[in-house]
Amino acid sequence: xxxxxxxxxxxxxxxxxxxxxxxxxxxxxxxxxxxxxxxxxxxxxxxxxxxxxxxxxxxxxxxxxxxxxxxxxxxxxxxxxxxxxxxxxxxxxxxxxxxxxxxxxxxxxxxxxxxxxxxxxxxxxxxxxxxxxxxxxxxxxxxxxxxxxxxxxxxxxxxxxxxxxxxxxxxxxxxxxxxxxxxxxxxxxxxxxxxxxxxxxxxxxxxxxxxxxxxxxxxxxxxxxxxxxxxxxxxxxxxxxxxxxxxxxxxxxxxxxxxxxxxxxxxxxxxxxxxxxxxxxxxxxxxxxxxxxxxxxxxxxxxxxxxxxxxx
Length: 312
Known about the structure:
Layout: H1 6-15, E1 20-24, H2 28-40, E2 45-50, H3 51-56, H4 62-73, E3 79-86, H5 89-92, E4 102-105, H6 112-128, E5 132-137, H7 170-180, E6 184-187, H8 204-213, E7 218-220, H9 228-236, E8 239-244, H10 246-262, H11 269-291
Parallel strand pairs: 1-2, 1-8, 2-3, 3-4, 4-5, 5-6, 6-7, 7-8
Helix pairs in contact: 2-4, 2-11, 7-8, 10-11
């Protein structure tokens, strides 16, 4: 079916007190796995391309975007295309032509007033070109700090989701949304990007205050490190879009490593990439079921009590 829009999917999820799963893609295998996983549970899904993924592809946005669009058009479920964690204004301005319906503009590294000014300018441009736009306020950990990073952090040090002042303040968020005009807000409530263990504990009391203060959908970043129960509670508390990336990479890398360990003489990438793609598709389906508050196949015991991402 034709590409749908991120805004439409989130509006429907918000009305249903549910959340849309948004998966970060890097390769064609990621795209195929996300679509297959979503189809297996008959759920809509968002394919996300981050600025870092674009850099990996030598700065060329279009090949991956074209592949995602082609996969969406052949999908049996609604699929939207989202450009994630954009800091480059040049990349932002390529989004619409590449088929994206939405952008997450990330100026969260900047002090509040600079973040607001940059985001306002991005919103003005995005809305003028028909794009739904998300921003971030607070400091979701796990990414390089750069300017305006976590208190006490050096240049390039990873942001700390638990540093003083890292969490999103509800009053500040209300003013930020009103003054910037964003369509959704990614909030810092204790998750962290690039976690490889599922040990994040979310601040659900803060989420409740944020949901009461804001009239735009709330987004959870760094969700790969959040246990199933925490994810379900977050969705019930008002999270409408859940970003997932590292969990796919764990599944892909684990399956390939297992395949090559058992077959050290294998050289055909189609063989081990098939295993990796299948593992990612299973991860997609499992996490979508979690967000729909369904038990994964095998029941709650499938979640590793030690906090690791469950094997797929």
